[in-house]
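> Could you send the TRAP-type C4-dicarboxylate transport system permease small subunit prediction when you get a chance?

Sure thing. Input:
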Amino acid sequence: MDRLVLVIDKIERYLTYFTSVMIILLTTVISCQIFFRYVLNTGVFWLQELSVIMMMLIVFLGASGAVWDNRHIGLNFVVESLPAGITIWVRVLSDLIIAIFSILFFNYGLTMTLNTGGTLSALRIPIGFTYAIIPVTAVLMALFAIIKLINRIRLYYFK
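Output:
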């Protein structure tokens, strides 16, 4: 299990690097869009669609990484003020809820990906392909939450 945690840590680190690069690229793309529109008085029609796709990647990949690192919005001060025996079970319940939500999110995202037709007008990419990030990150979130849940229970019972 510890080896798996190390692998997941490495995956999460790559996700963080990738999303950081995407944020820099998104800033560059939006800056170019502003420059072309307001300085050169012309628009590059495909930059807006590219910006939206990049933003989707950043949000969904960042959310999956946040599951592993416990960086989601939470009421940590409330949980930490509870007795130690209750705190662990609140965290286990939280991981379980995230895993269940992620599985539902996967089903919804897969349905959207497979059933959405058409193409983006500027980039000529199938719209369903752009939605593929939803089920992919849902699998990552579920995997991260389940591994954390198992680890918490294992550490609680087998100290």
